[in-house]
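anyone seen this seq b4? input:
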Amino acid sequence: MRLSHISWILILSANLLLFSCKPDLPDEVSLAYDELPDKLDYNLHVKPILSDKCFVCHGPDKAKQKAGLRLDFAEFAYANLAENPDKVAIDPGSLKNSEVFYRILSTDKDYMMPTPDSHLKLNAKEKAILVKWIKDGAKYQKHWAFLKPEKKDLPDVDNKEWLKNPIDNFILAKLEEEKLKPSKEADKEILLRRVSLDLTGLPATIREIDAFLKDNSPDAYEKQIDRLLASPHYGEKMAVDWLDLARFADSHGYTVDRLRDMSPYRDWVINAFNRNMSYEQFIHQQLAGDLMPKPTRDMIIATAFNRNHQQNLEGGIIEEEFQTEYVVDRTNTFGDAFLGLSVGCAKCHDHKYDPISQKNYYELFSFFNNVKEAGQISWDGALPTPTLLLPTKEQEKVINFINNQIKKQESEVDKAKGSVNNDFENWIKTGTHLNLTKEKIPQAGLLAQYTFDDGTLKNVLNRKQAGTMKRESGADGDKAVFEKRDKGKAMVMDGDNYLDLNGVGVFRKSEPFTIGLWIYIPKDLKEGVIIHKSQAERLYNFRGFHLYLKNDRLEINMAHTAPSNAITRISKEPVPRESWIQLTITYDGSSKANGFRLYQNGRELLMETTMDQLTKDILLRASVQPGLQIGAWWRGFGFTHGKVDDIVVYDRVLTSFELKILANKTKWDNVLDLSNRTELKEYYLSAIAPDVFKARNDLKQLRIALADSMEKIKEIMVMQEMPKRKKAYILKRGNYDALGEEVFPGTPEFILKFPDNLPKNRYGLAQWLTHEDNPLTARVAVNRLWQNFFGVGLVKTTEDFGNQGELPSHPQLLDWLAVDFRESGWDIKKLNKMIVMSATYRQDSKSTKEQREKDPENRLLAHGPVFRMTAEMIRDNALVASGLITTQIGGPSIKPYQPEGLWQINSDNYKQDSGEAVYRRSLYIVAKRSVPNPTLSTFDATSRSFCVVRRQKTNTPLQALVTLNDPTFMEAAKVIGEQMCRTSNKQEAIIQAYRKLTGRKPSTKEVNLLLQLQQKEQIKFKNIPEKAKGWLNAGQYTVSLDLDQSLVAANTVVASTILNSDATLTKR
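predicted toks r here
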């Protein structure tokens, strides 16, 4: 039946009514719609809803997208639906054509969005916002943080007298908009304590407070700021926050969690802040100091930032897996610290909320992948490579002296060689050289020979010296297995048992040697060790040297700590299999790759050098050094089903002719006819010439002296770029061994396309960060610095500037500061000074009822910041107040008071320091990741296991127990109690103690209460003297016995009471 013309008009009219000025909506949504502003802002109103409630199923992550729909970009949201091509999710300006409109209002569980199984739900206001947004044209905007910040004009305000600097314009404009008034300026003593803690981490002393109170000049406050910014303790305070971010610690982490020393990096950070290094240089040097033009020692130390991550030395782990984990940590830290983005969420799949693809992640990953490092670090405590040696000036002088002596002695060796002609001729004339015909193999310098012909493991040169069969970590092995050869017998290896030569072949890196043997390589052996002098395979980072078969090539490695403090050479041609070959290694003691040679059947093999920076010795950290071991090693591949025979060990480098003799390619007779004197003279110089022998021995002793001197030098883990780029791949599901598409260094283009003129390495990445068009770096840095002073950033989610992060409380202020920061040359002190000089910062922290009701979190900053001091401040405040603090800057970490037995969980003994070290600042306390310092961790200090840009804030009863019972606080209270005894006026003594701990004078009521407490406690201690001992025995400080012990104890209770008060523990 056809509808009449009138029916069509009625239907059209109904539709026009439905989708005109205000749509027909459910009652609660309609009420919310009426309260919306006339104009919605996409980033402020719409984006947070989409990100929180929609992007899980319809965001950037392709793997999680449902129905092929994306709502994070306009072109996807406006497109025809994949499952319903006749429909669109959003038709800008048209509700009736927008599928999203119907779905968000639906109550049908099979149709509604979000779906019930997502456990997400839109409230009435959120539905109203989405409806109005679609109706108004559904305009998308780039995420606010991905837009380049602009320095807009300062907002105009009514109360201009309140303004101190541009910060205040933005804060006051918002307050006036919200009809709130700012607070008055804080009292001078409170303000000085606040700014002292914020800029140095230490409280103002009574002397400093009194000087400030007496100074009535207009710039009195500014003079205090300049003093604090110039203090060496400024760098310490700034370092505390940065070390959280840099995940600085004194241990490796994971289960075993051995200690390590990275304190030179901490000292570098402190010094950089004190020198007011520009933030640009600060991050450039940490990310890529080694790649910058003419890198200095300090610039390379800065790259330890990239090596602060946890490192694993547990047995049985997979090398490649943890190599990948370390690069992942560096990549994630880069995102958290500098971009304020959770890039780590894109490790296994595309980011669910931000436009960071998995490919983007591994492109960033590839910047940090090009360092030669071990996945499983050494069990013996060797610092993982690559490292930088840090000689003291005295050590440097010694090393330079020895190196000069070595150069001179090398010349002496050459001189000695050039002056042997007469001696050589006399040697020939006397016929002594003819004795060589009696030698089947060269005898000069021969230390040991093993032929196995008699079915034993005895040294032919010394029958009392025999090898033994062992397995695993030195356990007794199975009986040796021999089989017949054309000449005598050979040993058959099983890959588990090895032949231990028991002290034969204990060479240092400074000593020359030759090792030869015959081997038979089976067809199916993929890899395995042939010879080694070490404690184990990877578990001890290959310290020592070895000859290894892998990929049909032979590898020579000599290492202090592999893979970077080492020499590595690999043969260029495949090694023959299923036939007997003679291999000989020669080494000249030079500690250089070129000092190694490898010969096959008397012919020198061409070798590729992949590492040549052996700086320290190869001896193991053991009282008894193991000698050469053949055919297997602990926790590594052995020479399975391979055969060995005729092992020889020399303490000199054999000549080319001698090497041919070992390989049965020639005989002495072929050189003794004097037709070729060159080879005979070469032998004479190597084995006979007394002057040459002495000169070489002197050279060896100098090299040993150099090795001994180098061994004492401190070192630190740093970055070192490999000459050839290490390939990087998308790792499917983030698994280290699931290689996908190969990727190359790159950056997410939605932030900033990587400029063509920058190198595709870490230095280029660092420059990309500080490029004038990068929208994030300055914002993130400014926000974090703001957080240090106000307890919360302008963006509360300091770690997340992405779609899931909170919007800035004052977006125009954040952008103004970001641009100004960059324009100032990234001047950190200038920014800090601007913040603390502002009227905003200087406000009284007391809040009115109206302020609390309108702004309970003080995000509008109508009053000054107020929050508990950080863990470090709380301990340092007690040390300063008591006068116990040691103010030494920098140096190794300390071990203060700590309950016994905590470290027994993973075997390290905690040996408490004594003397002044116990009283050093808290940032120097040893940070053991698996067992953080209990005092600091109770007050929310991080474990430093990963990058943290915003500490959590907790309030627990345990915190009160710490400040009441921890020896540090009890000792501080005891010292203050003793000091109070030296003031005859008890009331004045209490006032002084109160001021030391809180920074302000107590009220009359507070003084009276504390006097009553003192009197009550003194009576108690006089009646029961034993109770006083509990208060006075804490810590290493001894109270003077000349004083009334009951009064000292009573004063200690008073001091402890003040120390535990809100006035002491809170920064106002």
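The longest helix spans residues 393-418. The chain has a mean pLDDT of 94. kinda curious what u guys think
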